[in-house]
Amino acid sequence: MQMEIAEIPNIPAQGFLNNFLQGNGEDGEEINEQAVAQARDAMLRQARQQVEQAVQNGVLQRQEAPNRRPRIDPYSHIFEKARNIFRQREYTEICGICNQDIVRTEFLDHLEPCAQQNGKDVKETHIPKYRFLSTNYMLDQKMFAIRDELEIEFLEVLWDKETVHKMHCVLCKTYNEHLNGDCVPNLQKQAFLQKMDQMLNLHMCYYETHLELKKEREIEQIRQAHENEFEKMQKEVDQRFPSDNVIAEQNRQAEYRDFRERVAEPNAKELQEYMAHANEEYRRQYEFKKRQVEAVARREAELMKEYLLSNVCRKDLNKVIEYRKILRDQGWEAAEEFDKSTFPTPQNVPDARNEETRKWLGAIGRRQD
Question: Domain of life of the organism in this record (predicted)?
């Protein structure tokens, strides 16, 4: 089932790099600090308004993790969701087979061995497996990984233009356009939405499978209840006609047929009514889930643009990149230690970005005019 993520109106990119990366002269030696602040503030205000509008249009408000510290400023070097993302991995899920709390990072690997140890068929693992794969937790983790990859690539390009060939791109029509940085003003939004579209298709496939498995299980339970009623009737009839002679057997078979004829229509009607109700209910749940994840994806695209935009002018961008790689490779605790020992950077630190990259970014800005 292919999903389309509705496009969010782009934040105007006219001159956004030109205002704070292009210098006063043609070579861009100096940066106008006042223009930097004004341009960035205007862009961030507009981005926030669009995010708020997306929320009003249906973003599902989720409960915050317990004991979560105040929200991290998304416009600094710190990735706003990182702490919560890493904490979520430490929470537990209840296994429906053994009723034990299992750490989320171990949940999928736990299911099949648990079923074997408890004498259950492997089919018993399918519903908890696909339920887990379609949770908001898994959506957040996958989305975090996509943002992490794209943001680090983009920050590295802002630091050194020679890395642009490594940056994911879906906008440039030719390799030369990409080398010229034609996709840079988009702040990786389209690249993010493309990757999210692929991931959300799989996420919704998991959710649809989960709903179908639940429906099949409930249908089987109804049929089993009907079969149990027949077996109960059989025992009663066998007690009334206990003999093994032909007449007793004929009486038993006649009772069986009469019972099946009496319950056939009500049983079939019960199944049909359940299936009609389940199909409608699961269709409604699927559409709600689809709208939810699409809204979350659109909101994340705007938050990513805000984050990247807020870091464009940082003179200590190399430290920001180092921080992000430590966060990616070593986890939150190591990144937090690096943060405490490194930031904030003194205001008088010179911009260590190489001159070629500064000129390259300035040229991109001038092309936006």
Answer: Eukaryota
